[in-house]
Amino acid sequence: MKNMKTVTIIAAVILIIAAIGIGVGVSLGDDDTDGKIVLTDSNGETVTLDSTCSRLVVYSKYIAEALIMMGATDLVVGTTSTVLKDTNYSQYYQNATDIGTSTTDGLDVVLTLNADAIIVQNTTDNTALKATGIPVIELGASKMTEVVNDITSLGILTGRTSEAKRIVDWYSEKLKIMDSFNGVSPKFALESYSSTKLTFMAPTSTPGVTLNEVKGKNIFEDSKTSYVYPEGSTLIELNPDIILVVTYNANWSEEKLAPYLNSVYERSGWENISAIQNEKVYMVSNDIIGGIRSVIGGLFMISLMDPENYGDISVSELVDEYNQLGNTSFNNQMVYS
């Protein structure tokens, strides 16, 4: 990859997913076409590269986690401050250069890393990165609808197809449980941890997609945007049965979780909301709401929707199983109530 670094978008889609939907494993197939590798990005576009990559710059948190699970962090020469400060990830990326938090802040650093490719979210403005001439590949593995394709493509990109297949197989096994669920959903409110204003997430957000996949009902299902900023009175009117507060790793500590949870219960006028009355407010780590571990979050949602049949689902046990899969030691306490 140190010589010619070109990305060619071609019309034919050659990575074939073996079944409709995301609840089935993917065949990784032959990644060699005339000496090149071919993969499919998050946008469904086919990308051709001269060879597998040995020097990657990674902007996507969930791709960074996938590379840990694949034992491929040695390929990462640069990643974001968010990844490097994450207590789950930092030990695996001690040799990676900090490239900042956005695709423009650390651009000057990226240019010094002699990268074979840059991996970014497809929701990011990647104009400046593409202008560098370094192949920019949009893989996020963030939403449940992206994970199977993006992890499969990551395996092809890095030459770790068997490692990627192992992850996809585990993920697909959990998806089958979710696909078979036909319970009636209570009304969910998906709140985003915020110290400034009430923020909730609609069906097109990453947590919203996870809720959709388990056939859950989002109180903001008619929103045209991913985030909603309602007045407190709106929640009183919509009366959710369950409130999930999606919380980022930086705030995942007793010192921050406990006060925030208490503040939800103490909000003015909310005492008659079903979720408050029945003490069904849960702080949930975003680590199990997006990415590969989103299936764990989805199964947790099912356990809340149908506790009689799925109440024995244990988030901590599922994370332990995931840790065994990747020989990792991620925190298994992902729900706080």
From TrEMBL:
<feature type="domain" description="Fe/B12 periplasmic-binding">
    <location>
        <begin position="55"/>
        <end position="313"/>
    </location>
</feature>
<protein>
    <recommendedName>
        <fullName>Fe/B12 periplasmic-binding domain-containing protein</fullName>
    </recommendedName>
</protein>
<dbReference type="Pfam" id="PF01497">
    <property type="entry name" value="Peripla_BP_2"/>
</dbReference>
<dbReference type="InterPro" id="IPR050902">
    <property type="entry name" value="ABC_Transporter_SBP"/>
</dbReference>
<dbReference type="InterPro" id="IPR002491">
    <property type="entry name" value="ABC_transptr_periplasmic_BD"/>
</dbReference>
